[in-house]
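Issue 218. Parser rejects a valid record. Input:
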Amino acid sequence: MDIVILGLLMVQDLTVYQLNQAFKSGMALIYSASYGSILSAIKKLLALNEITFIELVENGRNKKIYHITEAGRAHFYQWMHADLDGNKLETMALCKVFFLGLIESDDDKKNILENIISSIISMEESLNQLSQYLSHLQLTEEEKKLHGYQFKTLDYGIRSHGLAREWAQQLLDEL
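Output the parser choked on:
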């Protein structure tokens, strides 16, 4: 959440309301957030001095406009180049691609995409190993009924990671 807010603030200064709208519109396909979680993340980012704000009065109402600091920029760029966590691989890979336009160097963009592809391949290998292991289990008919849809879910994971890898490779090839 914090990193997505930093990315959005890299593009432009925003109010909490505008951040919330960004999560409800374009970011909603990738990352969802409640108003409360946005406020909590802003509080954390302010404490870390990664963002700051100016306060204005507009139409008789106080308005805070948030701005990313140099520390926030450094954290954002560090995250963009860091390895992906396997637990949130799809979400974080999509977030990195969403913000890839903020990276100036094509070489850096390539490195980020290569890192994404490497992480996807690693997860694919793990899922395929699990599938191989499970395929060799001697299950009763009752166990097959019970676990059949769990195996289908695993198959979905394998297929979706294959598609994600192909998609990311296409992005890399376009650079």
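Fixed in the parser; the record now loads. The first strand starts at residue 51 and ends at 58.
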